[in-house]
What does this fold into?
Amino acid sequence: MDSRVRIITFQLACLLLMALKPAQTQAAGLRCAKDQGICEFENRSLHLGSRVGIFNPQGDLVAYGQVSRLNGETRVVRLKEVFGAITRDDVARPLGKATLDSFRKFQRKPELVWQAAIGMAAVTVGAGVWGPMISGFREQSLAHDFAWTVDATFVNAGGSVNHRAGSDLPDGSFSQNTLGVGAGIAYNVNQNRDLSLRGSATLGGAYTMAEVSGPSNEPSDYVSGFDSGFGVYAKFDLAAYYRWSDWRLGLVPATMFIQSQRIDSISLAVAVDF
It folds into this structure.
């Protein structure tokens, strides 16, 4: 009697589990050909012609296609468009009647980036002088969102400056042209998203031509530890970008150090990804 009760109880439990099991709606064991033209997965609800999307763990649409063949519970999907490499962590889901614009499409991270920027720079000479600045960089991707970068910056600034403390010289008129070139490391956050961030640090050298119009023509009489010639160049920036296709528009605040000078700048940048 006890054995019959146990058997009946076991059968009822199995029936209950089968009744509660939901219909399969996404990929179980997604498998794709090497050329990623055809994928297959287990699904009982899809029929011939059903539209299927393949999504990565972040919810990006990686590829889409239609069910082209049924093989028992296996659905074979011929992909129509692939936006990125399909991995073992991706899943397939029915698209139904939704348009592709309803989903965020996967965008690969660029391997190479070129950028040009124009802005204004404030130079800590005397009470401070302002001037235009142009800059650019070339960036090559490394692992884990890091990249190495080569940066160039040109600053043309001028204005009235105060004499050095302890000097009897009156105020003078100051002008400066500086070209700095450096190499360093950049780190990108959400580089393949519509909104992204980038920070970088570069170190190199700069050549400065500085002139003072006044009782003394020596810049060092007005700016302690600074003069025309070569010097160490260091630059740090943190930029925010908005993506449009392979182009990005950015706002770039930066701080540079050249000899004893600190130069703060704000620039509008255009970057293109390859």
